[in-house]
Design goal:
The complex is a heterodimer. Chain A is mostly helical. Chain A has 5 helices and 3 strands; from the N terminus they run ααβαβαβα. In chain A, helix 1 packs antiparallel against helix 5 and helix 2 crosses helix 5. The chains are: A mainly alpha, B alpha/beta. The structure holds iron/sulfur cluster. The site of iron/sulfur cluster has 12 residues of chain A, from helix 4.
């Protein structure tokens, strides 16, 4: 099928459709760890209204495509967070929000805080700040949309 | 009962092992030997109506550990603070959770942070840190920035 170019032709037609639907229905996991979760709540409240970008928080990892890590991850939480990540179906992305999720933040040398989510989960977008404002969070989601637009391939005829 | 009456009752029941350090309005400060702590608490609970343990915590004094109990009483309207010295190389003391269920998690936390073992505790396991943690972070010889 690849030889005849059918897949290429089909991909050319379907890729924009897949990409459009993926990036406009970003469902992050509703999982707040620390103070940054308050900004996450504010960003979906009426003033910033994340839902206009299709960002709807879901409570089950099976229904999500973005894991938004917002807060310090302790060594006790680490295996559970990894399990949540693995329970999410592909395609999936990870956003590290705030200093704590990026590097451990103010507690980087504490006895129990993991120094960054990227030590055990691949992270796509980093949003710096302590905490990042809701605008920054929305900006991070828009950057993720760009990333999805740039990276989606045709998936209609998988080889 | 007034604070003075409580002090007298404790002195009478435990002529040895308990030192009263001071009395303030609604506060009594005491020091106790670790051998009698369970009996002392039993006496306080059953005879003097101390019905609530507000806090159990540890202190690292470098040459020794201390366990500090805050017992409070609705009826007497006062808080009794008991400090118990325990040696650093044998950090073990009787658990008071059989008397007050509320002491259970306080003692587990003290074990978790200081490594002080409570004998006869129903479930002495780490409470905040993962089970396989090798250190006790609130001890003075624990250094931050180990990672
Ligand atoms: S980055 Fe700052 S605001 Fe965010 S979780 Fe850490 S301490 Fe809290």
């Amino acid at each position: 099928m690849r030889a005849t170019g059918v897949k290429r032709a089909v991909d050319k037609i379907t890729t924009p459709i897949w990409s459009w639907s993926l990036r406009n229905s970003i469902f992050p996991l509703h999982f707040g760890i620390a103070c940054c979760a308050l900004e996450m709540a504010a960003s979906s409240a009426p003033r910033w209204d994340a839902e206009r970008f299709g960002i709807v928080y879901r409570s089950s990892p099976r229904q999500c495509d973005v894991l938004l890590v917002n807060g310090w991850v302790t060594t006790k939480l680490r295996p559970d967070l990894r399990r949540l990540y693995e329970q999410m179906p592909e395609p999936k992305w990870v956003i590290a929000m705030g200093e704590c999720a990026i590097s451990g933040g103010p507690w980087y040398d504490s006895h129990t805080v993991v120094q960054g989510v990227d030590t055990f989960i691949p992270v796509d977008i980093y949003i710096p700040g302590c905490p990042p404002r809701p605008e920054a969070l929305l900006d991070g989601f828009l950057k993720l949309q760009d990333k999805i637009r740039a990276s989606t391939k045709g998936r209609f005829l998988e080889d | 009962m007034t604070e003075e009456a409580i002090v007298d009752a404790v002195r009478k029941a435990f002529p040895e092992g308990v030192t009263i350090g001071g009395v303030a309005p609604r506060r009594i400060f005491a020091r106790a030997d670790r051998a009698i702590i369970y009996k002392l608490c039993e006496f306080l609970k059953n005879q003097l109506k101390f019905d609530h343990v507000s806090c159990v915590t540890g202190v690292d004094r470098i040459d020794r550990f201390q366990v500090v109990y805050h017992l409070s009483s609705y009826e007497n309207r006062c808080v009794l603070e008991i400090t118990v010295d325990i040696p650093r190389d044998d950090p073990e003391i009787d658990s008071i959770s059989p008397l007050w269920g509320g002491a259970n998690w306080h003692e587990r936390e003290t074990y978790d942070m200081f490594g002080i073992r409570f004998k006869n505790h129903p479930r002495l396991e780490r409470i905040f840190l993962p089970e396989d943690t090798q250190f006790f972070p609130f001890r003075k010889d624990f250094k931050l920035g180990r990672q």
